[in-house]
Design brief:
By secondary structure, the protein is of the alpha+beta class. Helix content is 28%, strand content 18%.
């Protein structure tokens, strides 16, 4: 557990949190810098900086918990929906280097936008490039 990881501090009980769920592998708590009322973070209890480094069973536990809590979060704050997101790595906006899934309550007219609104423009990718990238991803195991 890195000493400077605030999520590890929360998991260890050293930093107070508004915990909404916990089991052997996963913990969920309200984000103290919320994008919306009810913004919840779901984290693995073991420290993993990036999604690609998490064992499959932990990944399953984290995302199953996010799925279960999404409806509860929306109900608790009377939201019209939720955005579930992961910023994986600094280039993607990850500020705390401990994997975490955001459950952000969404409301009609909140101007939050879709995931596509994070980018100023769409990439122009040819059919050949799409095929090549698809093959590279398939062959990556």
């Amino acid at each position: 557990m890195p000493e400077d990881c605030p999520f590890c501090g929360i998991i260890a009980g050293e930093i107070p949190s508004y915990t909404v769920y916990g089991d052997e592998d996963v913990m969920a708590f309200l984000d103290v810098n919320p994008l919306a009322r009810g913004h919840t973070l779901v984290v693995p209890k073991k420290h993993h900086p990036r999604v690609s480094g998490i064992p499959a069973e932990t990944t399953d536990a984290v995302f199953q918990t996010a799925g279960r809590l999404s409806g509860r979060v929306a109900t608790a704050v009377d939201a019209d929906g939720t955005t579930i997101a992961v910023n994986d790595g600094p280039a993607a906006g990850q500020e705390v280097p401990h994997v975490h899934v955001h459950i952000v309550p969404r409301f009609d007219g909140d101007d939050g936008g879709a995931i596509h609104s994070l980018f100023r423009s769409q990439a122009s990718v040819s059919d050949e490039e799409l095929q090549s990238v698809a093959e590279d991803i398939k062959d990556g195991d």
